[in-house]
Please model this.
Amino acid sequence: MTTDLIVAPERHADRLTLSLTGEMDTDNCSRVDEALDLEGCTSVVLDLAGLTFMDSSGVNLVLRLRHRLGPEGVRLALHGVQGQPRRVVDLVGLDEVVDVESPAQAVPAAAR
Model:
């Protein structure tokens, strides 16, 4: 059964933010790839504040993105990681290989 995942892309100059809401699993991870428009990007942020569930396919997605974006010079970061997704990030040490932004590093509301 496919779970609901909403991917909302927002562009702020050369920073692409993908806000994820719902549950991310093997059935819907491809939605993140579909929303990637990297033209002119130097930074991609996955905003996980609205994510309530992430399994190993979400971890794999982040690692694949890091592998893909790194050689292109595009920074990848996670933002708003909390709850069950935070436990997964901490458990697998994802924060050791991908930047996890503090709330102070978020795009200011005036720039939205």
User: Anything to note?
Assistant: Strands lie at 5-12, 15-24, 43-54, 75-79, 99-101. The longest strand covers residues 43-54.
